[in-house]
């Protein structure tokens, strides 16, 4: 079941990357030509692999925007920081984290992404949030770990064990 979700995620990301209209002229600091950067900085420190999704399959939460970044805390523990906007992206607040024990103590966390299931996949209902990242480094191979949400309403986002 997770493989299907991973395949769907890969297809979605591939389509987003290959969309011709997504290409824009940018200046030396990454701003679109003629457009000043606006918005809210999610973090004042490291924030790698930013991803965002506007909820469409979560009932009353539809329209909220969730964003995630990979960051590092304490002993270089890699974590996923999850943010929410309830005002169309004008502002964000951190609402959760993904703290994979396999990414603790500098063991490596890379290349995370965030995805909302548009329909039921196995026992996971439509609206389930998935967060996937590559974990591990050094002498052992990296593993793709997928975490899922269990209780959106109480902000239990991604706090359950990895699947």
Structural description of this entry:
The protein has 163 residues and is mainly beta. The protein is 10% helix and 32% strand. The chain has one domain (2-16, 47-154). The chain has one helix at residues 2-18; strands spanning 48-54, 65-73, 77-85, 93-98, 109-116, 129-135, 143-148. Strand 6 (129-135) and strand 7 form a beta hairpin. The radius of gyration is 16 Å and the shape is flat. 21% of the residues are buried.
Q: What integer is the average pLDDT?
A: 73
Helix and strand pattern: HEEEEEEE
Q: Span between N and C termini?
A: 11 Å
| Tally of DSSP helical segments | 1
Shape: flat
Q: Tally of extended strands?
A: 7
**Sheet with the most strands: spatial strand order:** 1-2-3-4
How is the biggest beta sheet arranged? 4 strands, antiparallel
Strand residue content: 25-35%
Sheet/helix structural class:
mainly beta
Radius of gyration based on Cα positions: 16 Å
Please, how many domains?
1
Taking pLDDT < 50 over at least 5 consecutive residues as the criterion, the unreliable ranges are 1-29, 153-163
Percent range for helical residues? Answer: 10-25%
């Amino acid at each position: 079941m997770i493989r299907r979700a991973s395949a769907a995620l890969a297809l979605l990301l591939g389509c987003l990357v290959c969309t011709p209209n997504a290409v824009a002229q940018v200046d030396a600091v990454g701003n679109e030509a003629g457009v000043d950067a606006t918005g809210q900085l999610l973090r004042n420190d490291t924030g790698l692999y930013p991803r965002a999704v506007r909820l469409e399959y979560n009932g009353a939460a539809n329209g909220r925007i969730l964003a995630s970044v990979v960051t590092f805390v304490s002993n270089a523990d890699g974590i996923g920081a999850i943010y929410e906007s309830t005002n169309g992206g004008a502002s964000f607040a951190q609402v959760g984290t993904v703290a994979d024990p396999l990414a603790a103590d500098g063991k490596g966390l890379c290349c995370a992404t965030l995805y909302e299931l548009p329909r039921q996949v196995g026992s996971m209902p439509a609206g389930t949030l998935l967060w996937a990242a590559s974990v591990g480094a050094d002498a052992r191979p990296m593993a793709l770990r997928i975490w899922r949400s269990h209780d959106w309403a109480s902000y239990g986002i991604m706090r359950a064990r990895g699947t």
